[in-house]
Each structure stands twice: as structure tokens, then as C-alpha cells.
Design goal:
two-stranded antiparallel ribbon; 4 helices; mainly alpha; about 120 residues; 2 strands; about 5% strand
């Protein structure tokens, strides 16, 4: 749950800020990066439940990078008035990956990433 709360705050802030700061990230309306952040949050949390465990921090972070790059680059361009170049998606994905690295480290260190025996 803590991962969800961190992502639901961090991702919209990053995407909306990028909309105003980066020239190769353009959204037609403020709701577009927020919808994209919700999509990234849902997929990211699901991926953490499936793949994150002690010993695979780097591979999990890399998987988040690739997933966020593809989602940002692909899904952003479906919005009317939005245009995100590959370079813009790459920059955003690197920023998100930096945040994900610390979130994943926290989850592993606090043992919140361990699988329950079922």
C-alpha cells in the first residue's frame, strides 16, 4: 500500500512538471498526464507484486524503465493535442526509474516486497 501512495503522488507531479519544463513533452490538457500517471501507478504496483523480491532490485528497476518508456511514448500520443517524442519519453522514464529505485529499495529493506507463503 505504501508503494501505491508514493507513486500516486510522485508520478503525477513528475508528468505535470515535465509538461511545463520539457519542450518535447506536450499535453493538450492537465488531465492527460494525470490519467497517464494513474495508468503507470496501476501497472507499476502490479509489477512490484509479481516481480519484486530480495536479490532482483536491478532487474526490477530495469523492467520498470522499459515499461514506463513504452507506456509514456505510446499512450501519450493517443491523447488529443498531446505529443511526446522518444527523447521526452526517455527523459521521463529515467526520472521515474530514479524514483522507482528508491521505492524498491525501501520495499525490500522493510520486507514489504516479500512473497507470502501460499
Amino acid at each position: 500500500m505504501s508503494s501505491f501512495l508514493m507513486k500516486i503522488v510522485i508520478l503525477p507531479v513528475l508528468l505535470v512538471t515535465a509538461m511545463y519544463v520539457l519542450e518535447n513533452v506536450t499535453y493538450g490538457a492537465i488531465w492527460q498526464p494525470i490519467v497517464l500517471a494513474i495508468l503507470l501507478t496501476g501497472i507499476g504496483v502490479a509489477m512490484e507484486y509479481m516481480f519484486l523480491e530480495r536479490g532482483n532490485l536491478n532487474s526490477s528497476v530495469f523492467l520498470d524503465f522499459v515499461t514506463s518508456l513504452l507506456i509514456i511514448w505510446g499512450a501519450s500520443n493517443f491523447f488529443t493535442g498531446a505529443e511526446v517524442t522518444f527523447a521526452g519519453a526517455l527523459i521521463l522514464s529515467l526520472l521515474i526509474t530514479g524514483c522507482e529505485y528508491f521505492i524498491h529499495r525501501y520495499l525490500i529493506a522493510s520486507k514489504k516486497a516479500e512473497k507470502s507463503p501460499a
